[in-house]
Amino acid sequence: MMNAKQSDRLATVVIYTLVGVVIATLVFLLGYILFQGVPHISWRFLTTASSNMTAGGGIRDQLFNSLYLLVLTTIISVPIALGAGIYLSEYAPHNAVTSFVRSAIEVLSSLPSIVVGLFGYLVFALKFNLGFSVLTGAIALTVFNLPILTRNIEESLEDVPNLQREAGLSLGLSRWRTTTKIVLPTAIPGILTGIILSAGRVFGEAAALIYTAGQSNINVSYTDWNPFNASSFLNPMRPAETLAVHIWQLNTEGVTPDAKAISAGASAVLIIVILLVNLGARGLGGLVYRRLTGKQAKGAA
Amino acid sequence: MQLTRTNAMIQDELTHSSRETRQDTRGRALTYLSIGLVVVLVVAIIYFIAARGVATFTTNHVTLSEFFGINWQPTATDSNGRPEVGALPMMVTSFSVTILAALVATPFALSVAMFMTDIAERRGAKLLQAVIELLVGIPSVVYGFIGLAVVVPFLRRLAGGTGFGILAGTIVLCVMVLPTVTSLAAASIRAVPLSLRQASYAMGATRWQTLRKVVLRAATPGIITAIILGMARAFGEALAVQMVIGNTTVLPRGLFTPTSTLTSTLTTEMGNTVPGTLQNNVLWSLALILLAMSLVFNLLVRLVGRKGALPS
C-alpha cells in the first residue's frame, strides 16, 4: 500500500506526463501544418486555378469560393440570428413554448454537419431545384451557423445590465426602441466577436458543403461583376468547391500527383486565416467597445 | 406645442395605440418571425430526414432484421432475392470509434483540465487555454489530412496491413474531441467553489486527495456532460473519419482492418445513387440513425444536467 504522500506524488507525475503528451501533440499538429504547408504558399499558389490531372495547381477559385460563401452566409444568418436572439433575451416569456424553442435550438446546434448538409441537398438542391450552388451552400451553412450565433447574441444581450433597460423604459421608449437603441449597441462588441468566431467555423466547414455547394468548379471570369451572368464569379447559382472541400477531395478521390503538397499548403492557408480571425475577433471586440462606450484609448482624445 | 387639444385628438389618442406601441408590435413581429424560422428549420430537418429514412421500410419493405444484418451490398440481392442492406457493420464501427475515442481522450482531457485549474501557475494555464481554444477551431478536414499523412503510414509500419481502420479513426477523433472535452471539463472544475478545496486542504488532505475526492466529485455532472458532447461530436464527424477508416463496408475484425462508419458511407455513397431507389433510401435511413443518436446525446446531456442540479 502507498501512503497519501506517495500516491499524491505518483498522481502528479501521471498528470504531468499526460499533459506533456497533449502539449507535444498540439505542438506537433501546428508545427506539421505550418512547416509542411507554409513553404508551398506563394503568390502563384494563391492565384492559379487548380488542376486535376497535372501537378502545379493552385487554389485561386477555392479560396475565393470559401470567402464568397462566408460573406453570403453571414449576410443571411446575422439578421435571423439577431431577431431570434432579441426574442430570447428580451421578449420570451418563461413558459413551455420558450423552453421548447430553446431545446429546438440546442438540437440544431448538436446536429452532425453531414446531416445538415444532406438536409440542404434534399430540400434546397433537389426540391427547390437550386442544384449544387453557392446559394444552396450558403443556406446549409446558415442552418449550421444559426444556433451558435443566436445563442451568442442572446448571451451578449443578457450581459447588458437591467438598469439600462429600466432607464429606457422609464423615459417612455417602447421595449423595441430600448432594445435597438440602448441594449443592442451596448452588446455589439460581444455580438461582433461571436460573428467573427463563427466565421472561422464556417470557413473551415466541409461536410455540410460537399452535397450543397458541390465538389466541382466551373470556369468563371473575375472581371464580370454582374451576378446574373452565368460565367460571373459572383453568380450564386454556380457550383463552388471551397478550400476545405478541396482538401478532402484531393485526399480521397483525387488523381492529382502533388495532392499532398497542395493539401498541406491549403491546410496552412486555412489555419492561418482561422488564426487571424481568432486574433481579430479579440482585438476588434475591444476596439468597438471603446468606441461605443466613449472610453478612448490613451492619447486619442 | 399645443396646450389645448380638440375632442377629436383626445378621442384619437384614447382609441388608437400610440406610436411607441405600434413600433413595439412591429419589432416584436420581426423577432417572432426569426425565432419561428429557426423552429420551422429544426422541425423540417427532422421531418424530411425521417420521411426519407423510413421509406426503406415502408416503400421498399425492408424488414428491421434485414436492416440490422451484416451484409451491405445495396445493389445486389441475396439468394432469397432480398436486398442486402445490412447496416450493422457501420453501426458497430461508428460506436467503436466513438467509445474508444472517448475512453482514450478522457484521461488526457481531465489531466489537462486539472493542470490548468489546480496545478499550473496562472500564466502557463492561460497559454494552454489559448492553445486549446485555437485547436477547437481547426477544421476537421485538416485533422483528416494529418491522419492520412501521418497516422495511417505510422500504423501501416507498426502493424502491417493498410493502416486504415478503427485505430486510425480513433486516434484522429481522439485528438479532434480532446480540446472540446478539455475546455468544457475545465470550466466545470473551475466552477467548484474554492471553499471546498480549502476545507479539504485544512483537514490535511494532499492535492491528489483533494482533486480526486472533492473537486472531481463535485464537478462530475459537468465532466460527464463534456464527455457526452465529445462523443456526440465524434459520432457525427464525417470527413476526418472517412479519410482514415478505409471505406470498406464489412464488420470490423480488429483495430487494423479497413471498415466504414455511418458517416463515411453517407459521404462516399450519397452522390452515387439515384433519388427514390432503394440504394438511396437506405442511405437516408443511415442519416436517420445519425439524427436519432444526436437527439439521444442531447437527451443524455439534459438528464445529467437535471441530476447534477439536485442539491446533494
UniProtKB/TrEMBL annotation, chain A:
<comment type="similarity">
    <text>Belongs to the binding-protein-dependent transport system permease family. CysTW subfamily.</text>
</comment>
<protein>
    <recommendedName>
        <fullName>Phosphate transport system permease protein PstA</fullName>
    </recommendedName>
</protein>
<dbReference type="Pfam" id="PF00528">
    <property type="entry name" value="BPD_transp_1"/>
</dbReference>
<feature type="transmembrane region" description="Helical">
    <location>
        <begin position="261"/>
        <end position="281"/>
    </location>
</feature>
<feature type="domain" description="ABC transmembrane type-1">
    <location>
        <begin position="63"/>
        <end position="281"/>
    </location>
</feature>
<keyword id="KW-1003">Cell membrane</keyword>
<feature type="transmembrane region" description="Helical">
    <location>
        <begin position="182"/>
        <end position="203"/>
    </location>
</feature>
<keyword id="KW-0813">Transport</keyword>
<feature type="transmembrane region" description="Helical">
    <location>
        <begin position="12"/>
        <end position="35"/>
    </location>
</feature>
<dbReference type="GO" id="GO:0005886">
    <property type="term" value="C:plasma membrane"/>
</dbReference>
<feature type="transmembrane region" description="Helical">
    <location>
        <begin position="100"/>
        <end position="124"/>
    </location>
</feature>
<keyword id="KW-1133">Transmembrane helix</keyword>
<feature type="transmembrane region" description="Helical">
    <location>
        <begin position="67"/>
        <end position="88"/>
    </location>
</feature>
<dbReference type="InterPro" id="IPR035906">
    <property type="entry name" value="MetI-like_sf"/>
</dbReference>
<dbReference type="GO" id="GO:0035435">
    <property type="term" value="P:phosphate ion transmembrane transport"/>
</dbReference>
<feature type="transmembrane region" description="Helical">
    <location>
        <begin position="130"/>
        <end position="149"/>
    </location>
</feature>
<dbReference type="InterPro" id="IPR005672">
    <property type="entry name" value="Phosphate_PstA"/>
</dbReference>
<keyword id="KW-0472">Membrane</keyword>
<keyword id="KW-0812">Transmembrane</keyword>
<dbReference type="InterPro" id="IPR000515">
    <property type="entry name" value="MetI-like"/>
</dbReference>
<dbReference type="GO" id="GO:0005315">
    <property type="term" value="F:phosphate transmembrane transporter activity"/>
</dbReference>
